[in-house]
Amino acid sequence: MIILAIDTSGREGSLALCNGDASSFEVLELVPLAGRTYAEQLIPQVAAALARRSLTNADVDLFVVASGPGSFTGLRVGLSLVKALGEVLKKPIVAVTILETIAVNALRSLDGASRPARILTALDAQRSELFAGEYEAQGADVAKVTESVVSVTEFKTRLSALSPVPVTYTPDENVATSVRESGSPAELVARPTADSIARLGLQRYMAGRTIAAEDLDAEYIRRSDAEVMLSQKP
Predict the structure, then answer these.
(1) Contact 132, 150 (CB under 8 A)
(2) Nearest CA to 53 among 17, 1, 86, 92?
(3) Contact between 16 and 30 (Cβ < 8 Å)
(4) In the chain, at which end, N or C, are there fewer CB atoms within 10 A of the end residue's CB?
């Protein structure tokens, strides 16, 4: 099965072309995408990656996309392309968040004896806020308890109320430092790239967890500045 995965959620993004099934997974192409130029880069880079493997859009069996959280503009670029390709080619789509991909990657790194029942993940959301995810471990996957945007202070308060306090997995060093300063454990991990998103997408596809093109939307988690300003108007 040929899988095309796209992540345009962060300051830097990536796309991956992979080949996988229930028993194997191979990364054929992993292409970095420079932030702020997704609209210009994405389609040419997808076409080039496919061409290097003598493939076309029609050869892709599964589209996987990072649905958030992250840049409003960036997310729309990736989601719009996957929505269009999935609808025109009648191919399945899986959408995953960066927060849950971090959680699944953390699960894969732990052996059975040390696997926690709950996993926390966090991303720097700027403005003294965090994108925070809480998940229940379910085999090789996770089930979302909540994904939200919270202040750093609120997140630390949440942690102090848990017993035992689970490890917070984050790719942001400042977040890890802040959590540790509160006396809670944190592990600095790599931010997932499109190959990790593809792997999780394949896993979800095998479990029948796809989404229709017309239902595909971003998981912004928080409102845009424009929406906040409009809500504050008298």
Answers:
(1) yes
(2) 17
(3) yes
(4) C
Q: State how far Cα 9 lies from the chain centre.
A: 8
Burial 120-157 (b: 16+ CB within 10 A, else e): bbbbbbeeebbbbbbbebeeebbeeeebbbbebeebbe
- Which residues contact residue 99 at a Cβ distance below 8 angstroms, ignoring those fewer than 6 apart? 69, 121, 122, 123, 131, 132, 133, 147
Q: What is the pLDDT along the chain (234 residues), one digit of tens a residue?
A: 999 999 999 999 999 999 999 999 999 999 999 988 999 999 999 999 999 999 999 999 999 999 999 989 999 999 999 999 999 999 999 999 999 999 999 999 887 667 888 999 999 999 899 999 999 999 899 999 999 999 999 999 999 888 888 999 999 999 999 999 999 999 999 999 999 999 999 999 999 999 999 999 999 886 444 343 333 444
Instruction: Report the DSSP pairing between strands 118-124 and 13-20.
Output: unpaired
The CB density around residue 42, as the number of other CB atoms within 10 Å, is: 21
- Nearest alpha-carbon partner for 78 in 6, 17, 3: 6
The terminus-to-terminus CA distance of the chain in angstroms comes to: 53
Of all helices (H) and strands (E), which one includes residue 136? strand 129-138
Q: Residue type for 168, please?
A: T
